[in-house]
Amino acid sequence: MKKLHAAFIFFTRLPFWRLGEVPPGYYKRVVDCWSITGWLTGGVMAITLWLAAQVFPAPVDVILAFLSRLLITGALHEDGMADFIDGMGGGVNRVRILEIMKDSHIGTYGVIGLIIYYILAISLISSITDLYIACAILLAGDTWSKCCASQIINFLPYARKEEEAKNKTIYDRMSPSAMIISFIFGALPLFLLPVQLIFAAIFPIITVAILILYMKKKIQGYTGDCCGATFLFAELSFYLGAVLIYYNV
Known about the structure:
Elements: H1 2-11, H2 34-53, H3 60-73, H4 76-90, H5 94-102, H6 108-126, H7 131-149, H8 152-155, H9 176-187, H10 202-219, H11 224-248
Helix pairs in contact: 2-3, 2-7, 2-9, 4-5, 4-6, 4-11, 6-11, 7-9, 7-11, 10-11
């Protein structure tokens, strides 16, 4: 329970810390519970979309849904994506890429990347005319993409020394039991979707595999920014796959 408590403290900005102090060691295992936190963040998105759709048309309701997650997470993953894109776009070698990624200032590549991400994400969800399916896609996309993105810590070493990490924490690799739990909580919302849309789950798997190979080549490992970026890229690919199937099957 302490590991789950640490995950909710780490991955959200909600006052879970008021429930009690968590020993620092548990923060090394928060990625184990990443897909579980998706039930909260993705669930809030889905509920917000459902409620907003009763009052507002698309894409206003979709924008409000994404805004709800931004408020809960404090743009944690978006910050990681911006730093990741800045580093990969502006760095000419491993050292320079890591320097740029560690810089808290956002650059041109990061700004453009976030704009494109949200234009695509909002447009894709807005294109789903069935409100129930759109809500289910938001929930399933969040949990499943976090499950897939969490695998980078199992396939790559940390790219920096522990004392150089932004949060001074290097995640422990997941045990077999933790991987199973992550998979179960990540995959369960997929079954809320129509059967044919479940196949959209393949897209994040492919996306994460490509990113793992890319990060291994560019920086020989991962950073916390890489985790956030991988999740959002995986989620976007899930939306693309779901819409592709929705309109063509």
